[in-house]
Amino acid sequence: MPQIEIKELESTPITRLEFITVVILFLLGGSFRCLFLSETAIEHFDEGVYASNLWFTPEQGAEYPGRYFYAPPLLPFLIEWSMVFLGSGSWGTFLPSLLSGILTVPLAWWVARNWFGPAAGLVALTLAGLSDLHLVYSRAALTDVTLGFFLLLSVYLIWKSYLSRDWKWPVLAGLTIGAGWATKYNGWLPLAVGLSGMLPWLFIYRRQLDSKTSCFLRWSVIACIAFLVWLPVLMGLQKWGGYSVVAANHSRYVVGFSGWLDSFSRQVDNHKLLEGTPGYIGIGLVCLVLCLLLHMLKVQRQLVLNARSQTDRSTWNVIIVGVLAALPLIAVYVLGVSPTLAVLGFLGIFLQLLFASKHTGQKQSETDELDSESLKRSLAAWLLAAWFCGLFLTTPLYYPYPRLTIPWTISAWLGTAALAGWIEQRSRSSLFSFLSDKEKKRFSFIPAISVIMILIITLCIMPWSVVAWQPRNGLAKVSQNVLTDIRAETGAGVSDSILYIYAEPGLFFNLKAQGHSLTGPVADFEFLNSLPNSMPVYLLTGPHAAADADFQKKFQQVRDHFELVKSYDYSPSLLVRLNQAHLNNETEIEPIILYRAK
Fold it and tell me: Domain-by-domain residue ranges, the chain?
């Protein structure tokens, strides 16, 4: 079989209609992430760790104690400089995650469009912009949304590296992976995806590709550059015992194959609790796109066959198309958003692989352009298959923190987009070109109306909620009340007292942000041996101390050295409650207790 030269093919031009649609959905996704941000504050344990760099001097390490256990330094560094310019309020602490979340939306569109076509880009854009899971964590000072952005960009750059002879792509891919690796310790994931997706692609098309060793060479260059970028992080860990210390800490959260099913079930429940109106609207809009694509495919086949009979124009036929396209909405009502995306994503990836294999098997008498394009789509599909299936199988091996599913969720967006792209490819026309043709889009409004009606009915049945907009400032309010009570008890300024925080980085951050300079985290009670005579000393404990058996044991030994000042009621947000071993009731109160050292 003759070998095929992979050509640099021009992508489908962006029409005015597509540009307007992309801008509207991008602004909608950005608005959902930014609205009501004043009701959000640092609350999660890890958020307090990442956002506290600014509260420590260089002599104190310029970071929260033990920060290296939780994440590499890049995100804390970005938050630190964001706070330098914007202060310690919501915008200063959440800006890096917000930007990563907002930029992920157009990036998902660009990647899906280049891989599978304009309709695929539209679907990916919609799902990314209106994903409830992504909305929630875009408004949190955590690493996962930033990692997702780097992961998506890295896999795309790896795809470009395999297809182009230009060495700038492997360099950019290596730099991007290194940045993701410096954000979270599993930032090497794109390397695994790039290798796992490349191997079956090279094997299947080994007779049609002229340079197979080049792909391995480029992957090796990418891996070397990524490691060099991450090397300063590894060197920085040496003073704490090396990466083995971090790995040992992470191993505590591995549930293994014996806990896979329980972890998987809990993650499904987590996603259901996070679902809300944006996700339902997103699936509804995807159904609308699928509806228009199916109608376009029907019209194109009529034009090819030159058979426009009266039966083809039947209103009932197009209504049936609309109802079929709305099946994902019905599945969402029964199963939930994420299970529906899992099914659509798997179907889209499978069909793309089948479609590409069919066309690359065509004889050389057909155009090289078609074969080259099919090879490129096939590579994208294999990379996506490795990403989707790999994370589907491995994510539940870890403790079921919902944020860990963000990388898999991004692959599900792209898989669903691949389904839309497969339908568009079969019609051999662009969806936006079809909608711009007044002659061809006749009757397209009828199936569209069917989908819209089902969407409206679904939204009426489902509860209206935007989980990302729920207040998440409980710890900030408690911190304010603590400082007020200390001021009232001492009769002096809060700066004339010392406040120690046990195992609550979120409380530590909020107390520092509200102006209490003499606040510090502690992991033991050694401070009792050096109490100052000139000012009172307080200890503040919360839910993590209450759940720590070691703390309870040590505290009972020194209980006589403390007197209870006050207990504060704290109602954790859903984001925090989803991290607990047993999901508590929404109205459950966690005590935060203030003691004074005697």
Answer: 16-360+370-468, 473-597
